[in-house]
Write a structure and sequence with these properties.
The complex is a heterodimer. The two termini of chain A are 38 Å apart. The longest helix of chain A has 15 residues. In chain A, 59% of the residues are buried. In chain A, 22% of the residues lie in helices and 12% in strands. By secondary structure, chain A is an alpha/beta fold. Chain A has four domains: 277 residues, Dimethylsulfoxide Reductase, domain 2 (3-Layer(aba) Sandwich); 119 residues, no CATH class; 83 residues, no CATH class; 170 residues, Barwin-like endoglucanases, CATH 2.40.40. In chain A, the strands form ten sheets. A six-stranded mixed beta sheet of chain A has the order 22-24-23-29-21-27. A five-stranded parallel beta sheet of chain A has the order 3-2-1-6-7. In chain A, helix 5 packs antiparallel against helix 8 and helix 15 crosses helix 17. Chain B is an alpha+beta fold. Chain B has two domains: 261 residues, Alpha-Beta Plaits, CATH 3.30.70; 29 residues. Chain B is globular, with a radius of gyration of 23 Å. The N terminus of chain B is likely disordered. Classes of the chains: A alpha/beta, B alpha+beta. At the A-B interface, helix 4, strand 3, helix 23, helix 24 and strand 24 of A face helix 3, strand 2 and strand 3 of B.
Amino acid sequence: MGASFGRGGATGFLQDLQNADCIVIQGSNMAECHPVGFQWVMEAKARGARVIHVDPRFTRTSALADTHVPIRAGSDIVFLGAIINYIVSNEKYFHEYVLNYTNAANLVSKDFQDVDDLDGVFSGYDPQTGKYDTSSWAYDANDDEPAGDAGGQGDESEESASSRSAGHELGGHGAALEHTKVKRDETLQHPRCVFQVLKRHYARYTPELVQEVCGVTPEQLLDVCEAVTSNSGRERTTTWVYSVGWTHHTVGVQYIRGSAIIQLLLGNMGRPGGGILALRGHASIQGSTDIPTLYNLLPGYLPMPMVGTHDSLDEYVAQIASPDQKGFWTNARTYTVNLLKAWWGDAATAENDFAFDYLPKLSGDHGTYATVMSMLKDEIDGYFLLGQTPAVGSAHGRMQRLGLAHLKWLVVRDLNLIESATFWKDGPEIETGELRTEEIDTEVFFFPAAAHVEKDGTFTQTQRMLQWHHKAVEPPGDAQSELAFFYLLGQKLRQRLADSTDERDRPLLDLTWDYPVDEHGDPSAEAVLAEINGVHLTGEKAGVPLSTFNEMKPDGSTSGGCWIYAGVYADGVNQSARRKPGREQSWVAPEWGWAWPANRRILYNRAAADPDGKPWSERKAYVWWDSEQEKWTGHDVPDFELKKPPSYRPPEGAAGPAALRGDDPFIMQADGVGWLYAPTGLLDGPLPAHYEPQESPISNPMYSQQASPTREVFSRTDNYSNPSGDEPGAEVFPYVFTTYRLTEHHTAGGMSRWQPFLAELQPEFFCEVSPELARQRGLVNNGWATIITARTAVEARVLVTDRVVPLRAGGKEIHQIGLPYHWGIGGDAVVTGDSANDLLGVTLDPNVHIQESKVASCDIQPGRRPRGPALLDYVAAYRKRAGITLDTGNELRNLASGANGGSRSGGVKEGAS
Amino acid sequence: MSPQQSGFSETNLWDNLPGTKNGFSSTDPGGPAPDAGWEAPPSRKGFFTDTSICIGCKACEVACKTWNGVPEDGLDMLGSSYDNTGALGASTWRHVAFIEQRKPLGSQDTGVTITLPEPAPPPQVDLGMPAFGLPGAPGGGDERSEFRWLMSSDVCKHCTNAACLDVCPTGSLFRTEFGTVVVQEDICNGCGYCVPACPYGVIDRRIGEQGTKNVGIAQKCTLCYDRLGVDETPACAKACPTQSIQFGDVDELRERAAKRLETLHAGGLGEARLYGEDPNNGVGGTGAFFLLLDEPEVYGFPPDPIVTTADLPRMWKNAGMAAVGLLAAAVTVFAGRRP
């Protein structure tokens, strides 16, 4: 999302779904996992909208949709690519929108070569490192080609923009460009313009290919194509909805890019009933990326600085955005300085780079999977688990639990004694004999946590909206809020270090750590919100809360802990606590809670008006230019400078916001437009191209390259992969499985398996199989089955159901098995069971380091699994039968001549400890 | 069945029993509450459950148990689609049914004809039961092109003519001012007469270890009597995210249901129907009624329930006549013996 549009958040809001004329839900089980928001899909349906669900399984979402399209897990790029092909070939795109609001007319470098030219990789691929040099993907840098027309404004710098960007840091914003004097062809005919590159790239994505790869018939594809194109344009809009069914893949970012391209081509971005709704996994996941729990981000999507390359504030800021590019990211220095002032107050001065040195610097990948592998090497002493249970909820549960057993200490803060807190006495590895309680040196500290009704604070939910929750009751017993816990921990650490003269302790001692406390000693959450919002520090307005991030200054005269949240405490009022009922305000309901940025509910809403500022149609009017008052107005807060007229053209040499034209709606992008083609910012390609998952029963029919050449593989004896496609041994694991959630449980079950009212609704781990597969393998409904991968085997009760259908893809019958992942082995929950996540290996998307947990291959057999050490032998025998080695599945580059020629096994080779 | 056919409009001994005066004239505009002796009661309250928009989230089940303090009802997996609740009972006052059908609604034509091994032999004896397509039942790949998944949240019907209430010997079951039927747990003696009396199999005695709340006592939905008293929506309806469960005045809900049915019929769902709302049905109309997309049996509802005490008046009458006859005979006998 960040790479396509400039911000990493859902572009609209749930209530706006009611305005859609067509809703495509793909990679999401919205009715089950977001049941409250789903009411707006039902509202749209009641108003006549067409609802289409594309998913491997027929779920509770499918049950309420008009159409369910069963698809092979891991093949979505082909499906999306075929829709793009349909739109472009049949000229169904929204021409005026595409021309003005996307980079369709920009010319791409002559050096760019597509995957079809290079047998499955884009230009710039280095088979030794498994990474791209993305410089050849840039916009045209030469001026010896005739420019298309007057739109051509000059040349781009020869220096590639790619060196500035690192994909994993672009979760939240558009990538940097040197500047934006890009050559254009307004006729969209130049063979190297983005539009033509796109057209050629997707020409191979035909209905036949969809049938071959996705198992979807041409009729069904055409039905979807016609539905989305006939429900897009001036008068109508289509919304795309996705969630973790898309993100949990080695090519997950490119899935999302696929829908971004469709929505830009159809002109659905920034408009009511349009956009892409990224549904977040649970209550405040959006909040936990805005004010991140991610290792590589600082608040407000500022990247975490790197050791060596970001030794000064100047170096750091220069990497986020070139001062010559367009858009608001050129204010990165301001946002950074305000954050540093919020954290270190008076200790952050202009003289010391506002204490930039105090920020921790990254030395490499410290994502959750890299961290667990470090644990196994005894590189990590201690670990905090807060509302997270890797023993059940993370991919490859066995690796997680073995990693925890290497720690010296482990702090678990949770509502219940989750499996991550009890693995040392009743985890599965105790049963298999791999771990012995008396040999585990990990000291586990369990702190009971306060639930959300027992503490004040905000949730930032799926639509970027902050909603305040008030403490209703005191937490029971010793239970504490996160805020109280960390405030006290900080106080204790600071007391211990109070006399320290060591420079390394200054960041901790200089922190602003002085929040008012209530009679129970709990710090005020509202004071924290005020600090995040920001405040004027000097001048007439000293002490006055900021009302927008535009008031932030880079000179230390203002402070603010997260620039995108500036305004949530405007006028000293907790805006997130507003609860004006919907019936007392407009349908946009701007006075319910507060949404970032600046309380905008639909992002990029400048695009709801045509280049002249008029609504594309009365029916879809949302934000428009009021020529009498000379400002932007409408139903929402305009996502544009209020007074900048549509006719504005930047003067020569302008940069930053001033360089944005009056018709550049994507104000966070380096060139002000939506990116059909990403010239930089992504590590695995400028356009989505189909690759098979890490484990797949079929060979990639498009080229020799089987899986993503940039995926992150870990060739380890505790992380074997199943063979795929035509490789010998692939037939040992002939089935596809996908993991997911049920309405009745919450993720790894920490909040639901301890609740009898929830536990009884889905008491046992089960697998969903088709009647055809049940007969093939002798599985009996409500009996037992064992599911096996190269990692382990788990047992599950069997649900035989027509909701799972076999598909034909790659010339084979493809049977898919559904596995909800809520259960774990432990002694404390009301219901327990084997964990589906134990079946998964660790293979990651290169951009965001997300694991591929939505698709893998397996075998299934009737009956229960072996117990104790026999389980290890059972799985080892499977590996032997399939001929699995450390190299299996870990070749990054596959070439046509000889399966192994010129290939490299990627990742860090090492044995499991 | 009309009131005339079932003899409901006859005047008889039954009419004089408390709480049932004119009890069978369900068209009474005030609903059943005035008949139970309430003076100027509020309008009758009930549920309209529109199953066509139920997403099967079971929030109603959880909200009901949380509000009413109903205990967990067994941790068994039933292997029956996503339904691990099974049926209404003493510890389950809301139950969401899941029905998987090879009928069109959501199309999932894969265009693939899967070659199948020999199907299992058919059952030896045809019991004449309606076929629901049991999970795992044999079927050809060619039948896989049409599929739908029905979900429906069941609850006590709060009948106009409530047999449970009729048979309760202690007065524990009573008709509230809202026209609903509620058990008073401190009066119920656990006799269990109400259990077989209910034509829908809703009410049951709670089974459990000694010390379990209300063990042995008959239990069922109260339509959140305590919430109604303070003008609050019952917990299940409040929790329903799609407004599949709608709470309100029964008269108004009936109108809403009729409109919704028209819309669905116009949309081509010809099999959609209302269930329970008809004041002329065998229980005089229910306070909680449903919009179904198929026949009631598919959802586990009795197709044409009749209040089990319907025949009581005639039985009383016959018994009375018999008693009078016997008395007369006895009198005659004794009279005859007197010289």
